[in-house]
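Regression report. Comparing outputs from two consecutive submissions.

Submission 1:
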Amino acid sequence: MFFFDGQLMEGDVISLPVNDLGLLYGATVFTTLRVYDRSLDHPLTNWDAHCDRTYHSIKIFDWIMPNWQRIKKEAQYLTNYYPVLRVTVFPDGKELILGRSLPDNLQEKQQSGISAKVIIDHHNNRSLPNHKTGNYLTPFLSLNKAKKDGFQEAILTDNNGNWLETSTGNLWGYVDGDWFTPLISEGILPGIARNVIIRNANFSVKENVWNPYFIEKLEAIAHSNSVIEVVPFHTINVNEKILNFDPYHPAIQQLKNVFMNLI
């Protein structure tokens, strides 16, 4: 079941005009959140932060504001059935709220890590990277390419080959006692989980440019988003060169503890 434009619907089909802007141009803004204890008010759900980021994009795009009170009521209803919600807003103010399960084998991935491939392609620059829009073709293509080559995640780069983010989250790298994450100004999404870590960390967090010199120094690496929290990497393919990392590195627990301490 899901909500579309104020209506609770069942199945997996909605009707859109052939000239709908979301259909033609990917003109939507969306956010995906994990609901803890079936509560939008749980501190880890971060409902207000997700709404604020979406509101900010809609205001900048000069779209019609949705009915936020209705959206929260619909989202709260769906928390009875789904642990993950995706809230999409169209330019005309219509909302689409979908629910889904947590990713398969999430706990195993959080513990043992996953593999990734760095996608170096100057044609793969993400559209409006500071906004979570429906034009998500670049991350989609990058992730598909990585999976086709046998990897579980993709790492996106800029025109200089600097690492920016993964196809689904923000990057974290540990070097000499400090955690680092790429600068927002480099063209990455200001992730909600990223902000949670920066705001609540009781350890050093720095923002920088992830150039090849910095990447060579990495001792541990992970990525974060609002659904998976923190998942480390054990293998990363860079130009067919394999980089190996310890997903059990003690520093990884520092990132995980940020979320554990908010439960």
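Submission 2:
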Amino acid sequence: MCAFISAFALTGAQATLVAPYRLPDIPDSLTTPDARSEYLMEHYWDNFKVENRIYLDSLQVAEQAFVDFVSIMRIAPREGTMKGINALLKRASCDEDILLMYAGFADKYLYSGQGPFVSEEAYLPFVEAVLDSKKVDKLYKLRYSYQYDVMTKNQLGMEITDFEYKLPGKDKAYRINKLKSPFILLYINDPECEDCSLATLRLSVSQALLNEVRSGRLTILSLYPDGETEEWLAGVAEYPKEWIVASMENGDRYFDLRIMPTIYLLDKDKKIILRNASLEEVEQALKQEE
């Protein structure tokens, strides 16, 4: 596969300048799938001229190599994956344009969901490399700075970033840190989103969650992240009366809203137990904490 992608779309003199990509040879002594995939990730870029600026004019070659790299990430151990990423970035960081090219590939395939494997952990080193680079102009860093802020907030085990929310038609602002129940289910959604409507229905008919709310163990805060709009207000009455239904301004400053809806489960200290969770995961977690 990777060994045959070197210059399919190139002809003439340009093709001769683009070195063919070849996978590294895996030692025969490595026999287990984990060991072989880890070695492959760690040495993936050994035979690729990462620093060669010819790939800036032959993006499809470098991009296909990156796509194949990501495809192996899905089965490789974490340690090998991170070593492979670090090896790539160490070499790519020598040139502003090359670094931005690979960061762009990573944004596309690891963060923005245009590939089958999305991983903030794998994408974060690319963001940090751009932000740390003295070669990259500040203007180019703006997008990555925003992404860094989003990715380093509200992760598992962290205390959730405090924010204000308002109840429908009210001016008074409330803060999530003031909620006192042992558990809080933070449900970020948009009623105009089809997936959100389905999730709202599933959450609302869960007898397990309803019992938790009625017992006082759980507070469900349904949050619309784009401020109090007429469209949102029109649908407020459709949410269960046992929930707190609220809106907040500029939700994208606090939360990653690329995927909606998003469910967080918090403990009494507002630490994140679950992130991007399913209903089943929430129900199971609450049951285990009984």
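Expected: both submissions complete independently.
Actual: both completed, but the second showed a warning that disappeared on reload.
Relevant detail on submission 2: The mean pLDDT is 89.
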